[in-house]
Amino acid sequence: MRIGFLLHNAYAIGGTTRTTFNLAGSLADRHDVRIVSVFRHRARPLLTPPPGVPLTALVDRRGTAPDAADPRAHEPGRFFPAGESRAPQYHRLAEERVIDWLKATGTGTGTDTATEADAVISTRTGLNVLLARFGPPGTLRIGQEHLTHDAHPHRLRRELQRWYPRLDALVTMTRADARAHRTGLALPHGLVTAIPNCVPQTEAPPADLTREVVVAAGRLTPVKRYHLLVAAFDRAARDRPGWRLRIYGAGVERDRIAAEIDRRGLRDRVRLMGAVTPLDPEWAKGSIAAVTSAQESFGMTIVEAMRCGLPVVATDCPHGPREIIRDGVDGRLIPRDDLRAYSAALAELMDDPALRRRMGAAAREHAAKAFAPEQVTGRYEELLSAPPEHPDTVPPAPRRVLALYRATVRLLAAGALRRTRRTLRRAVMS
């Protein structure tokens, strides 16, 4: 098959870029695959694209590029959903380039056969909407959700409820999020399917688990809660002076995390390592992997750490860790806000090398079986060869129930407002 991946920015580091490159490279063994990035801001991508897979960009953001001077780059777009966090970047030029590319991919309709595709897989919520609205009927339209349903604001959910049924399939990273999208957006059951991200086998040797190092990696953003990790490490390592914590990544929370490290007097024991790629050699230098997120759409770093043979201590947050880690077998799942339990789990693994080795071996074996590219690619090939059948619109019964619910809420709100007005009027008169 001819398969096109549509990415927001393939030239930046991010979990979506990493997993798209992994999946595209694996599919390219048997299919004609290409990657299209909406934006480009540098000469070369930070991550290495899969060999043999062409990468092109639709909008060049570099200062010397003609696109920077195009007046459409300063006009607001019309179709990219406003509630999406990247909406301000989708000006008229970006929207027109995406829509033109989608139209050109229609099998048998494009003037350039090199751009035609049997399937388009878009990898961001807003791009899923554009694919649903403007993707040619002759092409399979598959949207990927790398964000959880709960991460979408209400105004965006209304847009998704309107347009997502036009997709041929919507892929979430976890089963829990598939259920959340079906229920929260009232989508047809057959439209939504869960397929995890794939993580290829690492070329780095597995960790020997003898170094007294805890490793964490990911964007330095509030949802990752690295301040909680620093606090938990402080408690666990207080009586274990040889242990160190390394945090890899970049982001808006760096200064806050650094301040927390200084406040606790941990500058010699906790280091912010910055963004590093590839990460496999860094995982292999550790003995425990740590995740303290409030929410995960999947948990790529969890699987990457397990691939390198590390046991993972993770918060049991929605939605990813529970579908990756087997608690007590290849890692530990800790209640999301229980700092005491999290630090105790770290301390347990710090004190027990045999437990680390046992869990690390189980983690490596489990990740190789469940998240290997061939496993995930097989799931996508099944989806591409036989997309699920589902009605183009939400069944009428759920729509009636939803309308009744909304009408009831409005009536209750109006009644409460009238009662409040009467109470105020009586208070003024008295």
Give your account of this protein's structure:
- It comes from Streptomyces monticola.
- GO terms for molecular function: glycosyltransferase activity.
- Pfam families: Glycos_transf_1.
- Keywords: Glycosyltransferase, Transferase.
- InterPro entries: Glyco_trans_1.
- This protein is of the alpha/beta class and 430 residues long.
- The chain has 2 domains: 2-194, Rossmann fold (3-Layer(aba) Sandwich), CATH 3.40.50; 213-371, Rossmann fold (3-Layer(aba) Sandwich), CATH 3.40.50.2000.
- Helix content is 40%, strand content 16%.
- The chain has 14 helices and 13 strands.
- It has helices spanning 15-27, 66-69, 92-104, 125-134, 154-163, 175-184, 226-237, 254-263, 280-283, 300-307, 339-351, 353-370, 373-385, 396-429; strands spanning 2-9, 32-40, 55-60, 119-122, 140-145, 169-172, 192-194, 213-217, 244-248, 270-274, 288-291, 312-315, 331-334.
- The strands form 2 sheets. Strands 3-2-1-4-5-6-7 form a 7-stranded parallel beta sheet, sandwiched between helices.
- α7 (226-237) packs across α11 (339-351).
- It starts with a strand and ends with a helix.
- The model is unreliable at 392-397 (pLDDT under 50).
How does CATH name the architecture of the largest domain?
3-Layer(aba) Sandwich
Strand order of the largest sheet: 3-2-1-4-5-6-7
Global shape: globular
**CATH H-tier superfamily of the largest domain:** Glycogen Phosphorylase B
Range of helix content: 40-55%
Q: What does the radius of gyration come to?
A: 24 Å
**Beta-strand level of the residues, as a percent range?**
15-25%
The largest sheet is: 7 strands, parallel
Encode the helix/strand succession as letters.
Answer: EHEEHHEHEHEHEEHEHEHEHEEHHHH
Biased composition (Basic and acidic residues): 64-77
Keywords: Glycosyltransferase, Transferase
Region (Disordered): 64-84
InterPro entries: Glyco_trans_1
